[in-house]
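Batch job 17 of 40 flagged for manual review because the log was empty.
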Amino acid sequence: MVKIVIVGNARRENLAHWSKVTDECDLVIACDGAIENCLSSGIKVDVLIGDMDSIDAPTLEYAKLNSIEVIQIPDQGNNDLSKALSHAKTLQPNVIDIIGVDGGKSDHQFANYMSLIEAPVEARILLDDCVVFCVKSSSSVTYSIEVNQEFSLFSVGQSTGVTLAGGKWELNNATLQPGSYGLHNIAISDHITLSCETGSLLVFVNR
């Protein structure tokens, strides 16, 4: 099993509280200026990717001198997280965890969620207060959860054939529209299963 961790560049922070995640992975990808947080937090970076607009010359030179693979992509049409996800796909991972995207600009946070939908591989965002993952068209996801743990489910665009099992409020072949419907559900089982025939769902599981 190949585990990859992608580190975003949302804000200057100590990432030591994610050490269990980074220590147990096979490869760490830093998005642009996130490498500075990684270095100061003692996280070994294997790949540095992005347009390099948030990194100074000495840090970039340090990366090159310390056998960190540097992938510079000047394209401004996609954010650095999308670039990192595309590269991660080529490594055929089984698990992709994304950290370092808490806080920062609101539009950047929203773009991170959208990156999950367009990601060519399955991934999840680990935030301080929740875990976020996507359920895509014609797919089913089973997620381990504690009984009474809260979670929310939102449709991005119209989603049809939506089924949810394991929650206090279940769904069976439902059609969902974008909106606040799906906020604040409660697990009644040690796992929840979600699927949809068309559309995309974003799931937020509270910690």
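Reviewer: the log was empty due to a logging misconfiguration, but the result itself is present. The first strand starts at residue 3 and ends at 7. Unflagging and moving on to job 18.
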